[in-house]
Design goal:
heterodimer, A: alpha+beta, 4-stranded mixed beta sheet, 8 helices, 4 strands, about 50% helix, about 10% strand, B: alpha+beta
C-alpha cells in the first residue's frame, strides 16, 4: 500500500534529493512517484498545492494524512523520520545543517543559471550569468578544500545535496566540466554518483 | 554577550525573516547584526561564505564556533535555540509538521516573488517575459489560496511561517506597487495589516 505521493520531474535536482533520500532510507515501496507536468495547465501538483512546484510530497495515510509538503529540505527531513536503516541527519546537527544550507545555495545558483541558459539567445543577461558563474566558481573551490569533511561520513542529507548539485552542474553547464580543476572533489563525486539511489534517479 | 552575527541586506525578505525573529524572541543582545551590500566586491559575506548570500549567520558560540549558515529556514531554526524565550517552532507532534508545511509553502512563494524581482533587475532587453508572467500567476494563485486559509493563519498569533507569509505579502507590495493584491483578498489584507503593525515588522521595513 502506498502511503505517500512524491511529485517530481526527472530533471529537477531538488526533487532528485527527495527521491534519493526515499531510496537510501528504504521507503520507496511506500511512495508513489508521479512525474508532474509542471508549467502546463495539467500540472498535477496544482490540485494539492497552489505553489505548483516540485518536489511536493503528499501524505496519503497514517497520522499525518492530508499533510502536503513543498521545499526539498522540509520533505527530506520529514522522510528521514521513517525507514528501517540509519538516519541521514548526520552525526553533528549544526555542521550538517550548515553544509546542507550551503549546498542549497550553490544549487540554487546553478538552477538559476541553468534556466537562463535555456532561454533564446538575445534574452540572456551577461551580467547575471557572470555573477552566478563567479559564485559557482567560489563554491566549487570551497568544496575542493573541504573534501575531507565531505568524506568523513559516508552519506547524509547534506552530502546527497552536494553530490546532486555537482551532478546538475555537469548536466546544465555543458562545456564547463568542473572536474579537471577539482580532482579530489571529482573522486568524491564519482563515489557518490555510483550509489544505486543516484543511478536510479539519473536525470533524462 | 553575543552568540552569533547576522549579516543581512536591508531589503532582503529572507534576511528580514531572521531579523523579525530576533525581535519577536527578544534576543537582540545575543545576535550582532551587520548590514552588507551583496553583489559588490566589498560584500562582507564573502569573508565567511563563498555563496555570498544573505542572510548569513556566523556562530560565535563555544561548541559551534565558526559555523557559517546560509538559508533563512536554517538560520531561523538556529535562532530559535538562542536565549530563554520559548522557540517559535513547536517542538514535536502534528503541530510541528503543520507549521513546517506552512513555512515551506511561504518559502516557495517568497522564492517565486524574489525570482520575478531578480528578473526586473536585469537590463530591460534581457528580461524574459514568459517567466515573469508565469511567476506572476504563481503568486496570484497563492494569494487566492491564502485568502481561503485566513482562519488557519489566524489560529496562531505568530510563528516562522506567519512571519514569512506576511513578509511575502509586504515584499510584493514593495516591489510591485502597481499590482496591489489587497482589493480582491479583503480578509488576507486584514490579517496582513495586523501582522505588519507589529513593532518587529515596523522596525525592519525595507
Amino acid at each position: 500500500m502506498h502511503q505517500m505521493t512524491l511529485y517530481h520531474t526527472p530533471t529537477s535536482p531538488f526533487a532528485r534529493k527527495a527521491r534519493i533520500v526515499a531510496r537510501e532510507r528504504g521507503l520507496i515501496d511506500d511512495i508513489t512517484e508521479i512525474h508532474a507536468q509542471i508549467r502546463t495547465p495539467q500540472n498535477e501538483v496544482l490540485a494539492i498545492s497552489a505553489t505548483g512546484k516540485v518536489p511536493t510530497l503528499s501524505v496519503d495515510e497514517g497520522p499525518d494524512k492530508g499533510l502536503v509538503l513543498v521545499e526539498s529540505g522540509t520533505i527530506c527531513e520529514y522522510l528521514d523520520q521513517f525507514g528501517g536503516g540509519a538516519s541521514l541527519a548526520g552525526r553533528s546537527r549544526w555542521p550538517e545543517k550548515a553544509l546542507d544550507g550551503f549546498a542549497h545555495a550553490f544549487l540554487d545558483s546553478i538552477a538559476w543559471r541553468g534556466r537562463d541558459n535555456r532561454r533564446p539567445d538575445g534574452e540572456r543577461s551577461p551580467s547575471f550569468v557572470a555573477l552566478e558563474a563567479e559564485r559557482q566558481r567560489r563554491c566549487l573551490a570551497e568544496l575542493e578544500r573541504r573534501v575531507d569533511e565531505l568524506a568523513a561520513e559516508e552519506i547524509s542529507l547534506a552530502r546527497i545535496l552536494v553530490a546532486v548539485a555537482l551532478d546538475f552542474h555537469l548536466l546544465r553547464m555543458t562545456g564547463e566540466d568542473w572536474r579537471p580543476a577539482h580532482p579530489k572533489l571529482a573522486k568524491w563525486h564519482a563515489r557518490m554518483a555510483a550509489r544505486p539511489a543516484f543511478i536510479d534517479t539519473t536525470p533524462f | 554577550m553575543h552568540q552569533a552575527t547576522l549579516l543581512y541586506g536591508p531589503t532582503s525578505p529572507f534576511a528580514r525573516k531572521a531579523r523579525i525573529e530576533i525581535i519577536e524572541r527578544g534576543i537582540q543582545n545575543h545576535v550582532r547584526q551587520v548590514a552588507v551590500t551583496v553583489r559588490t566586491p566589498e560584500n562582507e559575506v564573502l569573508l565567511h561564505s563563498p555563496t555570498g548570500k544573505v542572510p548569513a549567520l556566523v556562530v560565535d558560540d563555544g561548541l559551534n564556533q565558526g559555523i557559517v549558515m546560509v538559508e533563512s529556514t536554517l538560520i531561523c531554526e538556529y535562532l530559535d535555540t538562542i536565549g530563554d524565550a520559548p522557540p517559535l517552532m513547536p517542538a514535536a507532534g502534528p503541530e510541528r509538521w503543520a507549521e513546517r508545511a506552512l513555512d515551506a509553502y511561504a518559502h516557495s512563494l517568497m522564492d517565486a516573488i524574489a525570482w520575478r524581482t531578480r528578473e526586473f533587475r536585469k537590463p530591460e532587453e534581457f528580461q524574459f517575459r514568459p517567466f515573469i508572467a508565469y511567476e506572476f500567476e504563481r503568486a496570484e494563485r497563492c494569494f487566492d489560496d491564502l485568502e481561503q486559509r485566513v482562519e488557519e493563519l489566524s489560529a496562531a498569533e505568530i510563528s516562522h511561517s506567519r512571519i514569512l507569509l506576511a513578509i511575502c505579502l509586504d515584499y510584493s507590495l514593495f516591489r510591485f506597487p502597481d499590482l496591489d493584491w489587497r482589493p480582491t483578498r479583503p480578509r488576507l489584507a486584514d490579517w496582513y495589516a495586523r501582522m505588519t503593525a507589529r513593532p518587529s515588522f515596523i522596525a525592519t521595513k525595507p
